[in-house]
Design a protein that fits this description.
- This protein is about 40% helix and about 10% strand.
- The chain has 13 helices and eight strands.
- With about 260 residues, the protein is α/β, with parallel strands linked by helices.
- The radius of gyration is 17 Å and the shape is globular.
- Strands 1, 2, 3, 6, 7 and 8 form a six-stranded parallel sheet that branches. The protein has a two-stranded parallel sheet with strand order 4-5.
């Protein structure tokens, strides 16, 4: 599936010029900014007692997502999927299925760029292009942003804050994109756990193979597995993140998302 993702890179590059236009107005241009200047700092863990969050970052691995959803559903777990815009353009029906299970959706940028290398306007464009595509696809107004590869700069944080997002990192990383061993993924996701963990993973075969054990570990040890917004006390979203701010409307957008996705 990685191969399929990268075959779309050239086609998606055509969208770059269109996406830059989004920065001028911004996806949440009509939304009131509820964050103070001190709220731009990234969040590395939650503050909930006896609760953790599983963060699934999605640009590839589509073939494993149904298995993830089935495991979460088996144990009544809802968590957070951070989705890339270029992935959503290719797999809108899969995003709809994730939302139908009640999972929270977060923003993972559009083209999986290194955000620390981008200026303010380019950061805004990347974030808002993903945001408006997700909103048009499933009606979700996202408020959480996870920078691709955990790469960000001061302009990234400012762009996220100014457009109504909290920047979210992680407290533990399974590094499942590199180490393809379910036992290693399980250990990294559960060893010496503590309250408020934000646990990063991706839809891979070996993470799928370890996922049920990860879920059972936390449940058996008295932890609730909750969406990131619940774990960090985010005030904008509910557990399933399905409501959007009343100021969000397609009239605020400078580029049609349908025209963007049609090019990919």
């Amino acid at each position: 599936m990685k191969g399929r993702f990268f075959t779309h890179v050239v086609a998606n590059a055509v969208l770059a010029v269109l996406i830059v236009a989004v920065a001028a107005v911004g996806f949440v241009g009509a939304t009131t900014n509820v964050f103070s200047n001190n709220d731009a700092a990234p969040i590395y863990r939650g503050n909930g007692v006896k609760q953790v969050s599983l963060m699934i970052n999605v640009y590839w691995g589509t073939e494993y997502i149904k298995d993830f959803l089935a495991i979460f559903d088996k144990y009544g777990v809802t968590t957070t999927f951070f989705v890339g815009g270029s992935w959503v353009a290719q797999y809108p029906e899969v995003l709809k299925e994730i939302v139908s299970y009640g999972h929270e959706i977060g923003n993972h940028g559009y083209f999986h760029k290194n955000h620390s290398t981008l200026g303010y306007d380019a950061n805004v464009a990347e974030i808002n292009a993903c945001g408006k595509l997700v909103f048009e696809t499933v009606g979700v107004g996202m408020t959480l942003f996870a920078p691709p590869s955990g790469d960000f700069g001061s302009e990234t944080l400012r762009a996220a804050r100014d457009n109504g997002y909290k920047t979210v990192m992680w407290s533990r990383d399974t590094i499942d994109w590199r180490d393809k061993d379910p036992a290693v993924v399980l250990s990294r996701a559960t060893k010496d756990t503590s309250d408020g963990e934000l646990i990063l993973m991706h839809p891979t075969a070996h993470t799928r193979d370890a996922l049920e054990q990860i879920v059972r570990y936390y449940i058996d040890n008295g932890f609730r597995i909750v969406p990131v917004s619940v774990n960090i006390g985010e005030i904008w979203t509910s557990a399933n993140n399905t409501q959007a701010d009343s100021g969000l409307s397609q009239s605020n957008w400078t580029v049609s998302t349908r025209s963007l996705s049609a090019c990919s």
